Amino acid sequence: MKIDRRSFLSLGVGAGAGIALSPLPWKLTDDSSIWTQMWPWTPVPRDGAVNYVNTASTICSGGCGLSVRKIDDRAVKVEGLKGYPGSNGNACIHCMAGIQMLYSPNAVKSPMKRTGKRGEGKWQPISWDEAISETAKKLGELRESGKASTLACILNSDYGTIPALFKQFLNAFGSPNFMRTPSYQDAYEMTLALMHQTDSMAVFDAENADFVLSFGSGIIDGWGSSVRMFKANSSWKEKNVKLVQIEPRLSNTAAKSDQWLPVNPGTELILALGIAHVIITESLYNKDFVEKYAEGFEDWTDNEGNKQKGFKNFVLEGYSPSYAARVTGIEANTIVKLAKDFAGASAPLALCGRGQGTTPGSIHEFMAVHALNALVGNINKKGGIWAMPKPDYIKWEQAKLDDTAREGLKVPRADGAGTEKFPHAKYLLTRLPEVINSAKESPIQALFVSGANPAYTLPDTKAVAKAFASIPFIVSFTSHMDETAEMADIILPNHGHFERYEDIPAPPGYNKPVVGLARPVISPQHNTRHVGDTLIAIAGKLGGTIAESFPWKSYEECLEKTMGENWTSIQESGVITNPDYEAPGWDTAFETSSKKFAFIPGNHNPGNNSLQIPVIEGNDNYRLTLIPYDSMRLAAGPVGNTPFVTKTVSEKVLKGNDICIEINPKTAEKYGLKQGQYAILTTPKGKAKVKTELSPGIMPDIIAMPRGLGHTGIDEYLAGKGININELIGPVEDPASGLDAAWGIKADLVKA
Amino acid sequence: MSTLDDKPKEVSDSGGFAILFFIVGLVASLVVGWVVFPKLLYSQKKQPFDFNHQLHNELVDDGCQSCHFFREDGSYAGVPKLEQCSGCHEEVQGETEDEAVFVNEYVANNREVPWLIYSRQPDCVFFSHAAHVKAGQMDCKTCHGDIGTSTTLKVYEENRITGYSRDIWGKNIAGFKKNTWDRMKMDDCSECHVKLGVNQTSVQTQKGACFVCHK
Ligand code: SF4
């Protein structure tokens, strides 16, 4: 007998039989199938008690009402809050995906101090005490050296208690430099200040309009309070309300409109005046309003005895439909028909502010569009544009001033707003980088940034970065590592958007007074602090009149006292509103000396000069014009896209990490470009590698690029995707207002 | 001249030997499959501390429902939250070590107890307690056994591959069961569903069969 190969085979067969007769293979098969169907690393929603917390959103200025579903203490789903003014039960993708932002592994987890060079990304976590002491020390030194006025604050809003706290701080400190990030609201507010002489907000009774003439406003691309505008647009479809969209690119709004009029970009002002021309010549204007409640329509003689040209003759002499057709590229008979349809509607509404309205635009364009509303008498009327007073529920005692503060407040604003050159402007943040860069020593020595991301959103990012580099001390209050935070010296992280209280007043464009309440849905996940509490703490550390100007122990106490008797009701219902609000009638609406609407405001008469369309940057060596465009799928404001939302971005916009540039097939052919090709885009501001996207929806010789891409910060899911259009475009100063009137930039595109 | 036939024939001699090897292989692998494998497959885990169901059952008015109740929205609360216990257990009661652990480590720090749940099913299974207990009038024991009279918590055996408790497959590695509560596999659910002719459709998908439990 000998042990041979056969024996081993027998052993193997025996073992095989034994295994088959044991539960091992069957059990292993079962277990591995469970394992493969339930990868242990796949996140699974937690099981627990369901509860809902109602809140208002701080993610964007839309300020929609939200209902957050929680499982135990974890927020799991965001829905619109029923009954909330405007958004009423709806929310857009950004808030719905906002949970990802809340639990983002990239949230700033504690106060941080920069250790490496600016922008190098080297940080050291520090304690709150240290962070606040260091900030207060730096600010104290500024005051001691007589430079109180060199502290600036940049925020994304100037309504509500948070901006009010920053203003209070600046006042007590001694600086006039509170700055709001630019938007079409600047231009609208100025338009109302000039033509109504009121300090008010432009709001729209959109739901009741029966003819909407949009000069490039992205009604369903994020303009105004986005969710409300989506709903208004749906209601127009149901009621057969006509929407005419005027813009050079077939945006989503244009695609869903009843008539799309591709206009030569930047010439919308001339189109508005051409329409006015038809309305006046055909005598289609509202005589009651124009004759009884308006001034400056007919020619007049001013106090000094000089003859002044009125709006009527100004338009009739300069802006015939045929002239407008030549400039705008829209046929004269189309303009005539459009004017007749507009004036013939019972509640026609004209609105402007391109795309999402992140660039203010030419003040004359806003005034011309507003004059159209005036001609048809649809100001402060059902379905029209209303001038609504700004929220005024904050009634604090004024900041206490010491000598340093009094001196500091006398210094003119660094951005030139409110100065002799730009008397009507409140904030001119887009001017600031240039002011700093051309100064020997930066007029801003310390900067606070809260709720804004100027290093990303301001045009000409390079100039902004250069300007920030010469500001010695920058404090960011962000809860995410955005581009501005990357340039900061200290980060004092605010609680996340569902971790804090905040009043949310005045959703843009909404025509009823609203103050919503954002409230903590979950407890703070990290070592963060409410920005209000941080500011109170810094004021306390600075002591003296500054500390005295903050008589609250905490932000919550401040908010409660501010709301006064409304505190209980706002906590219960999440909002204070007045659905019955109506705009004042024409006899009391205007604050001009004649109490009339001013077609041509006294100090703003263009006289015999024709109005200029803002000239964009670049010379004739550039063969094309680049315009930015907005999309609901790309957050272009201070808050960036969450990963879920970026997943919804089309490959025609972002392919891998490459940004796609829309170009008309004819233009592409002319310049030898093909679909999906790499190309080099050049503008006077910079260069970028892009991909071509042939689209008949863009006018020839114009190319379009989306806003909201090209982040370097926020998180690794967004950083490095595409190009930030602000790297390629700079601001264009509107000579009449100082606001940024850039609607594009000259550009060239060649095969890479 | 030799032929093949001349070679010594040893083949038949090794026949018995081959059988022996076969048997050795068979027995060894049977031992591996039935004894060693189950030991290797499951790791033994202890609960954070011990719990006496019987003791608590005597103190409450409403049986199992006192602690394992339905929430207002009809969903089932499952294992009690700390909040439910801390009412009585704010201070250490009695002298057991487990009680001290509970109060000092969890109640005092307001930390939920990370109980290991014997009956946790894979996440692809949708199971409604309300449908079974309220609509189907089943008692807890049918699936969970006599846990209410136990005085101590058994060791939690965790399947190293799936991460679920051994109680789902059942203690018997062959999958045999004596009692309805010995196993909680899909076959055990369907056995009852078939027997009782359950033909409800899923509320969510409006479909029957697999879709009642797998959405
Ligand atoms: S519009 Fe703004 S506030 Fe409203 S749901 Fe979208 S992101 Fe949120």
UniProtKB/TrEMBL annotation, chain A:
InterPro entries per record: Asp_de-COase-like_dom_sf (IPR009010), Molybdopterin-Qrc_component (IPR053557), MoPterin_dinucl-bd_dom (IPR006657), Mopterin_OxRdtase (IPR006656), Mopterin_OxRdtase_4Fe-4S_dom (IPR006963), Prok_Mopterin_Oxidored (IPR050612)
Annotated keywords: 4Fe-4S, Iron, Iron-sulfur, Metal-binding, Molybdenum, Oxidoreductase, Signal
Protein transport as UniProt keyword: no
Positions of the 4Fe-4S Mo/W bis-MGD-type domain: 50-106
Entry keyword annotation includes Transmembrane helix: no
PROSITE patterns associated with the record: 4FE4S_MOW_BIS_MGD (PS51669)
GO MF term list: 4 iron, 4 sulfur cluster binding; metal ion binding; molybdopterin cofactor binding; oxidoreductase activity
UniProt family annotation: Belongs to the prokaryotic molybdopterin-containing oxidoreductase family.
PANTHER family: TETRATHIONATE REDUCTASE SUBUNIT A (PTHR43742:SF9), TRIMETHYLAMINE-N-OXIDE REDUCTASE (PTHR43742)
Protein name: Menaquinone reductase, molybdopterin-binding-like subunit
Organism: Desulfonema limicola
Lineage: Bacteria, Pseudomonadati, Thermodesulfobacteriota, Desulfobacteria, Desulfobacterales
UniProtKB/TrEMBL annotation, chain B:
GO molecular function terms attached to this record: electron transfer activity; heme binding; metal ion binding
Domain Cytochrome c7-like: 125-215
Domain Class III cytochrome C: 44-100
InterPro entries per the UniProt record, alphabetical: Cyt_c7-like, Cyt_c_III_dom, Multihaem_cyt_sf, Multiheme_cyt_c_menaq_reduct
Pfam family, one: Cytochrome_C7
Keywords noted in UniProt: Electron transport, Heme, Iron, Membrane, Metal-binding, Transmembrane, Transmembrane helix, Transport
Residues that span the membrane, as ranges: 15-37
Keyword Acetylation: no
Name used for this protein in its record: Menaquinone reductase, multiheme cytochrome c subunit
